[in-house]
Specification:
Elements (H helix, E strand, L loop, with lengths): L12 H4 L8 H4 L2 H14 L3 H16 L5 H12 L5 H25 L2 H17 L7 H25 L3 H15 L5 H15 L32 H26 L4 H15 L4 H15 L5 H12 L8 H12 L6 H33 L4 H30 L10 H16 L4 H19 L1
Length: 455
């Protein structure tokens, strides 16, 4: 898809940075440097969307300053509106901002590649031996660290995004709506956007908090980079390439296995799921489980639940649980292949069709979203959505934190190991400014050692 997103960055310093910087993107952050980060991110992106967004915010905005707070939140708002894994889409968006389509491809791909292979291995152990106890202790160490990462993100993003009493009201309303009233997430986003739009008529535009900071990617008022300018021809080419990338493997699969085969059914079904599911991995899982268990009979309900537990032990989007479902469907219904080979094909088909639309959404829509950064009405609406996102992340932090520290509920006792680990990780990240990679690794090792000692 890279060659179908042309537009070399042949612009002056003012197009890429402010005039005082006088440098181009490549001289400040090379493709190789960015690639190393995206690979690293793929191995440490635990904790579902809240944890992954928190890690990217800490690394890209706070620590490396590759992207400004305003641009990060602008991209996040767009990704929150899309079906599919918003954290993976956000990585794709920022990779595209930095290094055009090749940057977006490697950012989005390496966000999931480590989890593909890790989950394949765990799925095989589960299907063949029914035992994954050897890795049971690692997530017990990871999860408290993720709680700390999410709490840190709530504090830092909230500090930047909540700039008025009205924003605090929107964030609080979003938290109440999703936690207590169980309001659907798309409705919360729509309402917050309308509220933010209304606010633009009664208050002046806020000056950017990071006006004096130096960032690789230009702030709100800077000219568009060449590759971010919308083009009808580029959009058409992107759409054609995206459709071809979907249709050609499907045609090959039908020629090999047949239209009614399990793998062709998976290709169609998970494409549909990728396009119509909103609300995060848990909402997707509810929709897919009902169809896969009740409708198609690909796996049992207990296997689907076990798949969610396995997906939570791996980095990458929690929606990777769909790969496990595709794997088990192939294992349970090999249709003339060996169970292992059929399962691997099913897993790869599922993963490909789940994530391909996300790349198309970003490459197709991001140039138009970038071109509207100066539109005050859209800016106001997205500001309202940003405030709501703070409330949503706070809800995720509360839900995830409670599940880790009070796994049996408030009356079921406190997991003091998780509580102490969360506090220590938060102190290391927030006060000591420790690298999140080493904090995550330390958490996993401590969890593994603890599991070995108490076994």
């Amino acid at each position: 898809m890279a060659e179908n997103m042309p537009g070399a960055i042949q612009v002056s310093g003012t197009n890429v940075l402010r005039e005082s910087d006088g440098l181009d993107v490549a001289s400040r952050v090379s493709f190789a440097e960015a690639l190393r980060f995206w690979i690293k991110l793929g191995f440490i992106s635990f904790g579902g969307p809240a944890g992954q967004i928190a890690i990217m915010h800490r690394e890209l905005v706070e620590r490396r300053r590759w992207v400004s707070e305003a641009r990060f939140l602008h991209a996040l708002n767009y990704c929150m509106l899309l079906p599919g894994p918003e954290a993976q889409q956000l990585a794709t968006y920022i990779g595209w901002l930095l290094h055009r389509a090749p940057g977006g491809i490697v950012a989005g791909a390496f966000f999931v590649i480590p989890s593909i292979f890790i989950l394949l291995a765990l799925s095989y152990i589960y299907a063949a031996y029914g035992n994954v106890a050897t890795v049971a202790g690692v997530p017990d160490g990871f999860k408290p660290v993720v709680v700390a990462i999410v709490v840190e993100a709530v504090l830092k993003i909230g500090k930047r995004a909540l700039t008025s009493k009205a924003h605090y009201v929107i964030a609080a309303a979003a938290f109440v709506g999703i936690f207590f009233l169980h309001v659907p997430f798309p409705l919360i986003v729509l309402t917050a956007g309308l509220a933010g739009l209304a606010l633009t008529r009664y208050r002046p535009t806020k000056a950017e908090a990071d006006k004096d900071e130096r960032h690789i990617v230009p702030d709100e008022g800077a000219p568009l980079l060449a590759h971010t300018q919308p083009s009808r021809g580029r959009a058409l080419r992107t759409l054609v390439v995206g459709i071809a990338l979907w249709a050609l493997p499907f045609a090959a699969l039908i020629a090999w296995r047949g239209w009614s085969s399990l793998h062709a059914q998976e290709y169609r079904f998970f494409t549909q799921a990728a396009l119509v599911t909103f609300g995060g991995a848990y909402a997707v899982l509810a929709y897919v489980t009902q169809a896969a268990v009740t409708g198609y009979g690909w796996l049992s309900q207990s296997q689907a639940v076990d798949g969610l537990a396995l997906a939570e032990t791996t980095p990458g989007p929690l929606i990777m649980v769909l790969q496990f479902i595709g794997f088990m469907a192939g294992w349970n219904q090999p249709q003339g292949l060996t169970p292992a080979f059929s399962a691997v094909i099913g897993a790869l088909v599922t993963t490909y069709t789940t994530f391909l639309p996300s790349f198309i959404f970003i490459f197709l829509g991001a140039p138009y979203i970038e071109s509207l950064r100066g539109n005050q009405s859209l800016k106001g609406a997205l500001t309202g959505i940003t405030a709501a996102v703070v409330g949503v992340i706070l809800n995720l932090a509360q839900v995830f934190g409670a599940a880790v520290i009070w796994p049996q509920g408030l009356t079921g006792g406190t997991n003091w190991f998780a509580a102490v680990m969360s506090i220590a990780a938060f102190f290391a990240l927030y006060r000591l400014k420790a690298d999140v990679l080493w904090v995550v690794i330390a958490g996993g090792l401590i969890g593994l050692v603890r599991a070995s000692l108490i076994r």
